[in-house]
Each structure stands twice: as C-alpha cells, then as structure tokens.
Amino acid sequence: MLVVVLAYQLFTSKHDVANNTQAVPLSTTPLSTPAQNPTASGNDVNSTAPVTSPAPNTTASVPTASIGIQPRQFVQSAFGNKAEVELLKVNRIPGQPNAVNVQFRLRAIRADKGTYEDNIYLPNTTASDPNTGATYKPIKGQGTDNIPPLKSMYNDKLPSVDGYIWLQIPEEVNTVDIQLPNTGVFKNVPISQPSTASIQATGKDTVVQPGQFVKYAFKNKAQVELLKVNRIPGERGVVNVQVRIRPIKREEGTWSDYISMSNTTARDPNTSEAFKAVPDKSTDREHITSLKEMDNKNLTSLDAYVWLSIPEGINIIDIYFPNTQAFTNVPISSQ
Q1: Are 58 and 72 in contact (CB under 8 A)?
Q2: pLDDT tens for residues 304-326?
Q3: Which of 168, 266, 306, 322 could cross-link 317 (Cys pair, CB 3.0–4.6 Å)?
Q4: Bridge partners of 176?
C-alpha cells in the first residue's frame, strides 16, 4: 500500500511541473527596416535626377555622431523645383566643439527658368533641435561669401555650385533640422565628428599609394591620377601635388581639353577653408598638352604638378583640378 501511495505522489508531482512549465514566447515586435539611400548620380555635371526627400526617421535612437551622411541621402528642391540642394557634409569643427560646418551643393535643374531672386542668402540659414525645438544661427563671417542666383548660373553655364556655412550648435546635440533659404527643410540630419586625421598627425606618415586616387576628366575622355601629395622641405605652408593625365578617348579630345594647373584649388574637408595655387609654381600652359595634341603626338600619358598654399597642421584635403572630378580626403605626406 505504501508503494502505491509513493508512486501516485511521484506521478502527480511530475504532472504539475509539466503543466506549470511554459515556453517563453518569441517577441512579435517587427524589426525596423533601414531606409534605403537613393542611388547616387554618376556625374554631377550632367545630373538632372529628380529630387528625392530623405526617408523619415522612424527610430527613437540618437544617430551616432561619428557617422557621416551618405551621397544623396539629403536632397531637397529649391526655387520651386528649378534647382536642388544636396548636403555634402555636416560635421563639427576641430577645436571648436560648438561649431558645425554644413557643406552643400546647389544643382541647377531648370536654370533657364531661373531669376535673380532665386538665390540662397546663407546668413538666413537656421537649424533646430528636432527634440527640443531650440534654434541655432550661423556664426558671423564663416560661410561662402556669395552663392550666385540661378539666373547667373544659367548665364555662366554653371551646372552646380558648392557652398558652406558654419552654425553655432551645442556639442551635446547630435541631430538637427537644417533650413537653407528658399529650400526644403532637411530633417533629422546627423552631425559627425571631424576626421581625426585632419586634427593631428597619427604618428605615421601617410603616403598616396599607386592607383589609390584616380578620377575622370573631360567627361570621361581621360583619367587623372594623384602621384604624390607632400609638403615641401624648407617651404612652410606649401604642398606639392603631382599628377599623371592618361587619355582614354584621345580621338574624341579637343584643343580645349587641358587642365590649367594654376587654377587648381584645395579645401579643408572639416572647415571648408579654401586654398589656392602658389603663383608661378605649376606646370604652365605651354607644357600642358591638350587631349587633341596628345592624340596627334601619340602620347599615352602626361605628368604635371602644382604647389598649393596650405597651412601647417592640415593633414588631409580635398583637391579640385579644372575639368576633373574632385579628389576627397587626400592625405598630405611630409616626405
């Protein structure tokens, strides 16, 4: 009888455990799908892509401050769809934690319909905190002096114009809405930190590698490769830039397809400060051969150089050669 009672108690104990044990249900909260960036246009000069608004921010998390914006992530129409404005970079200024640099590109879409009133007056730019509503204004004297109106862009046959403006934004703010005059509002724009390479040297001397920086020129009829970008010993504040020009479609070249090295410029990618060529320190026009001449002489390449006036302490730059795509984030070597 005792054996039967013990067996019955053991059976009921196991039965109770089985009934009180439940599987933990899987979460039914749907995963958020990241917004897809619009496809970047291949050629800024001929870009007439339709204006696309950035995808709305549906997450509550604050964007990581070190992550920069992507190409064509933030594009808004301007002047009643006669132009578009794209944010290129929104970053804090090295050494100035409460200053934010906003770089943008204005592209003409219907320049023939433009007027002199179709302009962006940068001192009227504002930003706001999407969470608190606090507003922020430009820093006086820090911005592109003159953005040409759309009518002037049409007269001068300018497909696009770049500009920048510094805004006074507290360092704890990581996301802002940006309002450029006569332009749609850019919503939930993340503020990135400046490139550490541009603040100070890393201890290693970064040298441009073969094939690392190659861009198209003359609408894909040639390529330009950076061979060397280095500071010149004994010349404080001077950087030597050496390039190689290779024709791709020599037979399509013209006499005007040449690069005026003295008109080369550079820019600090963090502050947008611009730098020009040192006078009389570049391969001059007499020694720069056009694509047409290279075809006639059966030349496969041509080397050239230019000296740029760039202050000490700047270790990374964007370089702009005439008729050539921009070289971005190029390190400056001391060798």
Answers
A1: no
A2: 999 999 999 999 999 999 999 99
A3: 266
A4: 189
Do 110 and 170 belong to one domain?
yes
Last residue of a domain, one of 194, 225, 244: 194
Phi and psi dihedrals of 113, rounded to 5?
-95, 0
Question: What values do phi and psi take at 159, rounded to 5?
Answer: -75, -25
Owning domain of residue 149: 75-194
Q: Is residue 51 part of a domain?
A: no
| Cβ atoms 191, 92 nearer than 8 A | yes
Task: Give one word for 218, left, alpha or beta, with left for phi > 0 and alpha for psi -120 to 50.
Answer: left
- Residue whose structure tokens are 């094939």: 211
Kind plus residue range of the DSSP H or E element containing 164: strand 160-168
The answer to whether the pTM exceeds 0.70 is no
223 in any annotated domain = yes
In which residue are the tokens 């507003």 written?
135
Q: What is the CATH number of the domain that holds 209?
A: 2.60.40
Angle (CA) 267 268 274, round 5°: 40
User: In sequence order, what are the residues at sequence separation of 6 or more whose Cβ sits closer than 8 angstroms to the Cβ of residue 281?
Assistant: 238, 306, 307
Tokens describing residue 69 = 């914006």
* Single-letter residue type at 273: E
Tens of pLDDT, residue by residue over 63-90, are 344 467 888 999 999 999 999 999 999 9
Return left, alpha or beta for 72; rule: phi > 0 is left, psi -120 to 50 is alpha, else beta: left
Say if residue 213 is in the same domain as residue 299. Answer: yes
End-to-end CA distance of the chain: 98
User: In the listed set 194, 212, 246, which residue is the last one of a domain according to the structure?
Assistant: 194
How far is Cα 218 from Cα 130, in angstroms, rounded to an integer?
A: 43
C-beta separation of 304 from 261 below 8 A: yes
Q: Which residues pair with 1 in a beta bridge?
A: none
Looking at this protein, which amino acid is placed at residue 23? Answer: A
Contact criterion met (CB below 8 Å) for 176 and 199:
no
300 and 282 in one domain? yes
